[in-house]
Amino acid sequence: GVPHCGASLHEPNKALRIELNANSSCIWQIQRNANQTVRLVFSHFKFAPSSSCETESIKVFDGPSTASPLLGQVCDDTDAVPVLESSSDSLTFLITTNSVAFPRNFFVYYYFFSPGSRTESCGGQLTGPNGTFSSPNYPAPYPQFRYCVWHIQAPNNSKINLEFQDFFLELDRNCQLDFTAVYDGPTSGSGLLGKVCGHAQPTFESSSNMMTVVLSTDDTNSYRGFSAQYSTVPLPGPVEPNTTLTCSSDSMRIVLSKSYLASLGFREAHLQLNDPSCRPVVTDSIIFSFPLASCGTIKKDEGHSITYTNTISLAPAGSSITHQRNTEIIALCRMRNNQTLELIYTTTNNAIQNLAAAGSYNVSMAFYESDLFSKPIQYSPYYVDLNQTLFAEVTLHSTDPNLQVFIDTCTASPQPDFGSLTYDLIRSGCNKDDTVVTYPAFENHGRFKFRAFRFLRSFPSVYLQCDVVICDSNTSNSRCARGCISRQKRAFSPYTWKTNTVVGPIRLKRDLRAAEHSESLTEVEAEETPNLQQYNFYTLAFVVLISNILIVVAVILKHHKHQVGYSYQNVQSS
């Protein structure tokens, strides 16, 4: 039905057809006592022609009132099918209209859902020059209340041709109920290529190597869905080698060549980021380098990834930047699954050029002397006593203060490649060793302590590997916020970023003492060896001397005997 101006809604799901006239200001509040969040879909909206966001819009607030944080805004020039999600069990939206006499109409539906549940497992990342994907359960009817997002990334300097080989969704005039939306870029905030429903075989072509496909369903009729394939073709024209974007967990760096700007008809004097106070360094190139969470950078949590987007506005020479914003350079960093996707593209009259590269998270792990975590262990191997308490800290090196580090799994192994022989300290956020104690999240650190484990009794070295999940701390239903979960539930639990880090080896001090004792014995033997040789030399010399003396004595005695014998014979003769 057509509700009056505003309402308080408590049903688990509901569709609203809203019709408003001029000078309206109406508030709808959605709230339900459930451990779930709200997904709100504006599948059709029609404002007064040429109305501005300042005078006519839909504002969505993340909470029970308009005093809650602003989640998003929909205006007449919104080039997307807006889908907004709350962080708790309440959400509010406000529709205001200007004084122009014009019938406005909107179609919106909402439903409560549990993030990370089996029903939310759809969509994904597609990479490579070609690929296929399909709706959930295809060719069986797709399930109700699904929101699936596929991100397609083809090789650099190519564009994507998307073809739906089979397509059958619920049909209505404005595709308000079940629909597929295709976007010309890396997110659902990119330009809308089209929204389709019913029975057809639609095709789409991107202007870059990035495309996003969305499937949204309600709770009424379900059909077999779709089967789609994509292929790529090279983009014409040369690639500008001196236009690059570099992303890290600390910063974003955009380098633009002057020749590239000149080819667009612009000069470096006419550039600004979302925050105009952040200025570039101009040398042979134009360089914007700034912390990731500054200069007006927009962060968006997409469930399986976090994107950071900033825009360089360009204005032709002699025109005002504030009024001439039809050309922009958009820089986007997407953090996901142990890698950083970097994308930079220029939009001029809907034409897009882009460059992309890959990076990694800057995450490290170290042992500390105590639970103060002020003095790291600087040497390796780390020699410990059996049952000694060890203090470990995982650090994300990032300038974004709203990131949280969660230690999901830590495994010990005597093998540096973590083969079949392993021992769990932490698994799925749950302590598996009785001696493990995890500390509350602190800034960009994850900390825990444990006692030296039994592996050290049987193996000379032990290594420690931890899987780390990194979430937006403002998202109340993130993997980090849920803490310990069972293995059964873990399969359905999404995370924002995940990476691992290794530290070691750890060895027992008794092995160190044994090694030191063996080494000291070797040194003593080495020192004593020349003394023994010297002793043997002197002994030999003494023996030789005695031998010589004995020989001399023997000769003397023999000679003396001869003399005595001669004298005796003379006496007898006489």
Automatic annotation (TrEMBL):
Residues spanning the membrane: 537-557
Keywords, comma-separated and alphabetical: Disulfide bond, Glycoprotein, Membrane, Repeat, Signal, Transmembrane, Transmembrane helix
Family matches, as SMART domains: CUB, ZP
The keyword Repeat appears for this protein: yes
CDD domains: CUB (cd00041)
Top-level taxon in the UniProt lineage: Eukaryota
Keyword Ribosomal protein belongs to the record: no
The CUB domain, residue ranges: 5-113, 122-233
InterPro entries: CUB_dom (IPR000859), Sperma_CUB_dom_sf (IPR035914), ZP-C (IPR055355), ZP-C_dom (IPR042235), ZP-N (IPR055356), ZP_chr (IPR048290), ZP_dom (IPR001507)
ZP domain boundaries: 246-487
Family annotation (Pfam families): CUB (PF00431), Zona_pellucida (PF00100), ZP-N (PF23344)
Name of the protein in its database record: CUZD1 protein
Organism per entry: Peucedramus taeniatus (Olive warbler)
